[in-house]
């Protein structure tokens, strides 16, 4: 019986199989993810990139300052990957050679004879090779064994059969299992070194790497924000339910990301002790003398001073402070979003009864205002027109006049081009063109809201405590749409005026041709006559149809009383027929006496009346049976319709649920790329993002948690859920979309809710237990006999 034998790779050839497979498993996905991807060349440049506005030029130079280093890094990465793939090709070639070296056992090739050689030729070849390779004559013993084995396989019948069946003249041999590791790796001489290497990799290096990674990841929440910063926000925001913008700015400056011991990217220099006090003298409301913790700490004072200098657009900072300010400003949008989410969590805790004084709506919106303040380097009290390039405080006085006051971006965009240019007559044409190019890319948002309640039977009925689902459709357009609308309206007005003038001219010409020249009083008289005719034509006489329709009597619906009336008429008619028959019989039997005729007539009348009563009873029984059957059929039809409607409702609910899941998956898988914002004072490229939430302006409360939307390119559909109020009544909410990049581009839509009281569900009886008197009647057995079988009726 064949056994098993494990063999290590003596020559190290099979080790290439293992090395090639492991190497390919690492190299292919690494190349896919880390290979430098070429950015698509933009056909149109962003206004920031081509503007001559000095902050735009400084930002462009700052962003492109590291381009040589980036290009060198990309080239180095490509070179490393090329070397790695060359090694992969060499390994693959080595493996292909190993496959070629593997050959099946062939005795003809060992003896050097043809496959059709005779036995004499085989013996002759064996003698010559044995003389040459015999060990007694100085030949190789192993090679002589192979020659003898091949000779035996071709001359001995048993060995020949074994070779044909098993591929070996000796019969079935041992099953060999090769281990793709070189033998020196498991040699007892090298076992100590191999064991130490194994222990070092798997017991020291790997646990240390995992421990370091876990410590770093455990310190951070989403967007790489320290958990200590989030805890600090919970404390400070919970203390101040009514928060102004300057207070929110102080909380933002106290983030732990700006403290050196928590963040190694922060650098503290001795020059800060000299430069920061000078900077604070030029700033207002920094509150450097406050004693509240952590606002009094040096790191918080420095960050707050740098933020104030950024909002006042101070440019004469030293190089070190400028670097620190850029880092602080970069981190602010992520920190502000974390502040907003924590405030929403505090509001949810207040709804659950775990917090007594949650942040008000004004506090949350003041926190949101920090983001456009930081991105545009502009205080919220300033005019939003200062976001545009080349517009300064000196130009704002031109926007206020007796005829019109321009205070918003939308008003400025809706102006006539000539008026707009006359207001900015102090700037050059090139600067004015840059202002218009920036104004054209500003966002213009329209909101449509659809309200649904999925859990209730009526989707549009809002009850107390129900979960309301708002489907908000957002459409984002450029502010250039307002320019186009202005041009279209002006062109339409001009076109309408021209058409009206042409029509008036044509009408005048027609009148001159048709109407003869008459005196004034005759013209007036002729004009009055058609008016009288038209007035008479309007008075239409009443047609016979109208008269009949107005005087036609109403027809009463059928009722059980009507059936009794018809039966009494039928019985009276039958009695009349009986009287006529009796008269005929009395005429025929005139010979009999009058007493006998009267007695016979009375007997006939009694018999006919009894027959008539029996027929009436049978007719009533049939009517009752038909009514019971119709009632039962109606009930079965109602049950079947109820089941079908319930099945339809279940199908529609499943379809809606699947649609919601698809929308969520689309939103989760979408890349966070919308439109590039124009922000020359922000040190990085910023994408437009938005907060979408539902608010109650009357009670200054937040209704739904804000959704941070970063994928609004053209159109977007988002679902916002919140619980309806617990008391019935009329409520007016606001669906608000607030930008984190611009001032004065927010959008809102009013939402009215008619909240009604929850109706108690009706108790439904089981159909087989609902026995009414109308169905069964006084004797249910009689009604059941109608639906019995023939055997039951016979019994």
Automatic annotation (TrEMBL):
One of its GO terms (molecular function) is RNA binding. It is found in: Endoplasmic reticulum membrane. It is a multi-pass membrane protein. Residues 106-167 form the J domain. Gene3D superfamilies: 5' to 3' exonuclease, C-terminal subdomain, C2 domain, DnaJ domain, Sec63 N-terminal domain-like domain. Pfam families: DnaJ. This is J domain-containing protein. It comes from Didymodactylos carnosus. The lineage of its organism: Eukaryota, Metazoa, Spiralia, Gnathifera, Rotifera.
